[in-house]
Amino acid sequence: MELDLILNELSLQKPASNEEIARQWMSCLIRTIKAIKAQGVKVNLRTKYDFHTTILAPNYPLRRWLNDKEVDQVERQFIKTLATKTPFSTDVTNLEIQNIEKNAGLSEFWYQGEQAIGLGIAHILDTIAVSLFSEERWNCSRLQLGFRRIDENENGEVIDEIVEVIHASCSNHVQEHVDWIQKGIRTGVLDGLDLWNRREELFSSLEFCNDVYKQMQSLGSGNPMLRQVLKRLFELDESCKNWTEGGFNMENLPCKVSPESDSRLKQFKKELTFKCPDGKERIFSLHVRMTPGAWRLHFSVELGPAKIIIGYIGPKIQ
């Protein structure tokens, strides 16, 4: 399994006061990345800009660190051979991510009052954000981000949400994510077609309408929306395991569930109606969003406890 780690650029804003502290920061970052690799994954480090230009301390950029004889040679060699991708959007085909990086999109992520581009990318790609342990605020295994977007359903209304990012700035944090990493290894999906072919294996509590097959074919291995689709499907599948009686409790999902408005149900009744595996046609009003952009996952809970039907996954139905 290959895992893209996203470097939190906010952790690079304040250089260390001296070279010794900078060396400690780099040693901690290396131990963190090695702890992730030790779980059996190949890692790449995505950065906002050329990582080697990072200023670690006054007059002490990373390039000097790489040639510093006081730094362990094994550590220097590790960074030299670490695969890095810059900018964040390298090899990423989804234009929404590129828009966020250029600060020109309709979605923005914030952490403690500062725009957090890297942390936002980590949320979108459903991967791990890593930080230099430059401030105490990075001493946590998960971060809560503010996510602001313009809701195309509400005449441009600004919507604020809170989203969570998996994070590590030391090897101890990685230990808290071992189960998450191992699950990713077991359930790693190559592309949308692979997801479809393995749907029964991965999502035992979900049924899929045949139309979803065509929709999944558009999700290539480099499409970050694939990670968002997987995340939402796993969330729905997990919620089913705890649904043993009564109606489905939307509050059990970590994401917001919305029904279509009466006006959209009337206007797009045909487009929102899908033939289900049992042969019945149902209107799929309930849906969850995938960020950023205007993708939707429509589902039905009509089959009753412990079973959800997936009717549509794709751009907002227009």
Q: Can you walk through the features of this model?
A:
The chain is an alpha/beta fold and 318 residues long. It folds into two domains: 182 residues, no CATH class; 126 residues, no CATH class. It contains twelve helices and 17 strands. The strands form four sheets. It has an eight-stranded mixed sheet. The longest helix is centred in the first third of the chain and has 19 residues. The radius of gyration is 22 Å and the shape is elongated. About 2% of the residues have low confidence.
N- to C-terminal separation?
36 Å
The coarse overall form would be elongated
Main β-sheet: number of strands, strand sense, barrel status?
Answer: 8 strands, mixed
- Please compute the radius of gyration using only Cα atoms: 22 Å
Q: How many structural domains are formed by the residues?
A: 2
How many beta strands in the DSSP annotation?
17
Beta fraction: 15-25%
Order of helices and strands: EHEEEHHEHEEHEEEHHHHEHHEHEEEEE
Q: Helix segment count?
A: 12
What is the strand arrangement across the widest sheet? 5-2-1-8-10-9-6-7
- Arithmetic mean of pLDDT: 88
Helix coverage percent: 25-40%
| Estimated structural class | alpha/beta
The low-pLDDT segments are: 99-105
